[in-house]
Design a protein that fits this description.
Layout lengths: L14 H17 L3 H14 L3 E2 H5 L10 E6 L3 E6 L9 E7 L4 E12 L2 E9 L12 E8 L5 E6 L19 H4 L3 H4 L7 E4 L10 H14 L9 E7 L4 E3 L5 E4 L2 H16 L6 E7 L16 H12 L5 H9 L1 E5 L3 E2 L22 E3 L3 E2 L10 H13 L5 E2 L9 E2 L3 H5 L4 E6 L1 E2 L7 E4 H16 L1
Helix pairs in contact: 1-12, 7-12, 8-9
The structure holds manganese (II) ion (MN) (2 copies).
One manganese (II) ion (MN) binds next to helix 7.
Length: about 450
């Protein structure tokens, strides 16, 4: 029996305010499962709040003043938002960086085939998944098919309660003797992750009648052909909304909370603050789960290019000024941390790990083995943040990602640090990270939002 005094932060916030914030998050998370959906959904909220796009400012249509929100998107998959401060950008910026891609299965380029009167889609998994967790679940398909005429068709199947769902089958226990004796990592292979999508033949069809019927449905519903799937991006994700979790409704279970819980709280922080002293930035990036590469990932020049444009419209662009602003930017890499799991205590060192309900988490470093691949934040920066959080009455925790040599991981922190910024990882603790359904604490979500605001205003 655990008789330790509770160290949770539940008693410090007004529970109706906390619940309202978390319900807004739960609804947004349910309706925005992919990077594209996050960019379009957040852009819509930005427009409603009076934000302008940076291209509107560059073209001279709009002018910026302190307090204004201005944004830019990159290939519909990443988004940067600035809230203009009272002081010149040359005096420094405050930056929240989160990622809006999450582990999933992507359809292959030639996905559709028929086998024994069943139609299936081939997939290639994206990000780090335990493959056995993704079978026998109701799954939905989200994405786009781009056609040769330049039009792009939005696809979303499996989210409306009246929609069908799809899924990956698994071997029945009765015949799973050999499968069950394999290593867990080999029991379900990447090539096993085929999505069962149909079994009804198209009438009067000789060959591949079930596949032909699926193609007829795609043609009728979306006006796309089998060839159009070559230029499609369809992400297969758990179907259905995020839910309150626990008999006391203290937690949220949802797909993609790594890292959309930090993306949403960062987004809300910059939307809800007044006019900051220093210009605030919220960058929501793609491709973190596969190494941050590509034009929409954190390794790209997207942020530097956009910042150059911003400095230009603010009348202070030069190559030297751009470098100066980058090196005087302070960053919270808004990413999730692993929560202690009472079922698996052995992987954590209890003095240096994060617990659900005890507030947002600083990870001074991540990496593997001897901190390999990690941004290790400076002591002076950590001291600055202790002061900011204490002054704002924020309760936080510090953590490592598991015991020494137990495993490891990384975030976008080091990429921003390469630009000369002070950076530390700071976000919400998550249980079941990278599983189809991840768990967070509502108390942590709300406290993280308040902590991000305190940082932007510091
Ligand atoms: Mn993450
Ligand atoms: Mn991740």
């Amino acid at each position: 029996m655990n008789t330790e005094k509770s160290m949770t932060i539940w008693d410090k916030s007004d529970s109706s305010v906390l619940n309202t914030f978390c319900e807004d998050y739960r609804v947004f998370l349910s309706g925005h499962k992919t990077e594209r959906e996050n960019v379009s959904g957040m852009t819509e909220l930005l427009r409603k709040a009076g934000a302008v796009s940076l291209s509107e400012v560059v073209s001279g249509e709009k002018r910026l003043q302190a307090g204004d929100l201005v944004y830019e998107t990159m290939m519909k998959k990443s988004l940067v938002i600035f809230r203009i401060g009272k002081k010149s950008p040359l005096e420094g910026m405050r930056f929240l960086g989160a990622h809006i891609d999450s582990p999933r299965m992507d359809l292959k380029q030639h996905p559709l085939y028929e086998n024994t009167d069943l139609a299936l889609f081939e997939t290639h998994y994206y990000g780090g998944i335990k493959k056995y967790q993704w079978v026998t679940l109701p799954l939905a398909m989200h994405g786009v098919a781009a056609k040769k005429d330049g039009s792009v068709v939005d696809i979303c199947i499996g989210e409306d309660p009246s929609d069908p769902v799809v899924g990956v089958s698994d071997l029945l226990i009765h015949l799973a003797g050999r499968q069950m004796s394999k290593k867990v990592s080999e029991a379900v292979t990447g090539e096993n992750l085929n999505i069962l999508i149909g079994s009804r033949p198209l009438p009067d069809t000789e060959k591949n009648a079930v596949k032909e019927n699926i193609l007829a449905i795609l043609k009728e519903k979306y006006d796309i052909t089998e060839d159009d799937l070559v230029s499609a991006e369809i992400e297969v994700v758990p179907a259905g909304p995020a839910r309150d979790y626990g008999l006391d409704r203290s937690m949220i279970m949802g797909y993609g909370q790594d890292d959309k819980v930090c993306a949403y709280t960062s987004f809300r922080a910059i939307m809800d603050i007044g006019t900051p002293e220093l210009t605030s930035v919220c960058l929501l990036t793609d491709k973190e789960e596969i190494g941050s590469m590509g034009a929409t990932g954190m390794h790209s020049r997207f942020y530097e290019n956009t910042l150059a444009e911003l400095l230009n419209v603010l009348g202070c662009y030069s190559e030297l000024n751009l470098r100066r602003v980058l090196t005087s930017t302070k960053v919270l890499s808004s990413d999730v941390s692993a929560a202690f799991d009472p079922n698996y205590p052995d992987v954590m060192e209890k003095n240096n790990c994060a617990y659900l309900g005890r507030g947002p988490v600083f990870n001074k470093y991540t990496g593997s083995r001897g901190k390999s691949g990690s941004n290790d934040a400076n002591a002076e920066y950590m001291a600055f943040l202790r002061r900011v959080m204490d002054d704002a009455g924020i309760i936080y925790q510090t953590s490592e990602l598991g015991k020494v040599d137990e495993g490891g991981g990384g975030t976008i922190a080091y990429i921003l640090a390469n630009l000369g910024m002070e950076v530390i990882d700071f976000g919400v603790a998550v249980l079941n990270m990278h599983a189809p359904w991840e768990i967070t604490s509502k108390a942590d979500i709300y406290e993280t939002y308040k902590a991000y605001q305190a940082f932007l205003m510091a």
